[in-house]
Specification:
alpha+beta; 11 strands; Glutaredoxin; 33% helix; 218 residues; 5-stranded mixed sheet; globular; single chain
């Protein structure tokens, strides 16, 4: 074998190794596509207990056998206001709770942080906005938010009656604070619940959430 032939084979081997490395990285990222830093679609939803705006203790266990939606919320976030001031979020709450779905709004803003509210302030807000969640969890210590690696408001998680996460991510495919973008947007929560209640696989089980960062305490 000539020197040039040996060089050609060496270069080919290095090129194939590089292609293999890129493929491995791609597959690794693809394998993580259904996860949000540890919360994996298809895995059991982390159990939790929290106090709601009425002073009652809410737990995931008490809703076993039902579909559950978790909605991370911040009254002052422009992305949250987009869906509340337009009435979009309330319409979703009313539509799905009427079909037996449990809807838990979660406020993980810590005391002293933007978005923090008292129970009275939240009750007044629900009345003003005509909101209709099953309950609002006042997650002041951020335990529920951190369990689910909630990063934005809004961020949506859908849990099936067996207690498994079937959707995690954005409310829709229009990551803007403009209410005009709601019309014509693909609503991932509607899509996930509609498919699951019909006994079908969720078409898009994971998306990147958008909105304001959750204001956890230190």
């Amino acid at each position: 074998m000539s020197r040039n032939e040996r060089k050609s084979r060496l270069h080919l081997g290095l090129s194939l190794a590089f292609v293999w490395l890129l493929a491995s990285v791609f597959l690794s990222h693809a394998a993580k596509a259904g996860t949000s830093d540890g919360v994996r679609v298809g895995a059991a939803a982390p159990a939790f207990k929290a106090t709601d705006s009425l002073g009652k203790t809410e737990s995931l266990d008490q809703y076993k056998g039902k579909f559950v939606v978790l909605e991370w919320h911040n009254q002052g976030c422009p992305y949250t206001k987009k869906h509340y001031e337009s009435g979009n979020m309330q319409a979703l709450q009313k539509e799905w709770t009427a079909k037996g779905v449990v809807w838990l709004t979660v406020i993980s803003s810590a005391p002293g942080q933007q978005g923090y509210v008292t129970a009275t302030q939240e009750k007044n807000y629900l009345t003003l906005m005509h909101a209709a969640p099953t309950a609002v969890l006042l997650d002041r210590d951020g335990k529920v938010g951190r369990l689910y690696n909630a990063k934005t408001t809004p961020q949506m998680v859908v849990i099936d009656p067996a207690g498994k996460i079937i959707y995690d991510g954005a409310i829709d495919d229009k990551p803007t604070p403009d209410p005009q973008d709601i019309k014509g947007a693909k609503n991932y929560v509607n899509e996930a619940l509609g498919a699951a209640l019909a006994g079908k696989p969720v078409p898009t089980p994971y998306t990147r959430p958008y909105g304001c960062s959750v204001k956890y305490g230190e």
